[in-house]
Amino acid sequence: MTSLRIGVVLAMCVWSAGCNQDLGGETDMDTAADMTTPPDMTATIKGSCDLRKNSPASQECRDYESTSAQFISTYKGTCTNAAAWQDALCNHTGALGGCMTMIPNLGGGTLIQWYFSQSGLMTQSDVQAKCSASGQTFVAP
Questions:
Q1: Is residue 65 helix, strand or coil?
Q2: Of residues 78, 21, 18, 67, the one with CA closest to residue 44
């Protein structure tokens, strides 16, 4: 019976030692990663096609945003030699405004066409009218 008690005590010591692992003190627990909040699996991918780079007559820059890599890569592919692609949004400095369109294909996303005074549109009201006539939503710069 004594050997049984020794075995039980020994088993309890091994079990408690395995359950009481030192994680490095309280400071590790204070800076531990938040395991209760799931990571954002819907990160937005951004890109733009700047038509102003090679064509002064076309003063437009197009922003594309989506959670779909296929959406972004497709529009990146259509940004031809007459324009310049970048993996960031357009520089909106000097923009009169933009027209936003929701695009449902290729995983879905948005397109905002930004207009500048050299595009033939002279005021923010001109851009608002263009957006309205095209069924798009006006976006202020």
A1: strand
A2: 67
Please name the residue that has the structure tokens 């994680």. 23
Instruction: Give SS3 for 115.
Output: strand
Q: What are phi and psi of 98, to 5 degrees?
A: -135, 160
Tell me how far apart the alpha carbons of residues 141 and 128 are, in angstroms, rounded to a whole number: 12
How far is Cα 124 from Cα 41, in angstroms, rounded to an integer? 36
Provide the whole-model pTM: 0.67
Q: Which position has the token pair 């991918």?
A: 45
State residue 116 phi and psi, 5-degree precision: -120, 160
Q: How far is CA 4 from the centre of its chain?
A: 63
| pLDDT tens readout for residues 70-86 | 999 999 988 876 688 99
- Residues with Cβ < 8 Å from 13, sequence gap 6 or more? none
Distance of alpha carbon 69 from alpha carbon 44, whole angstroms? 9
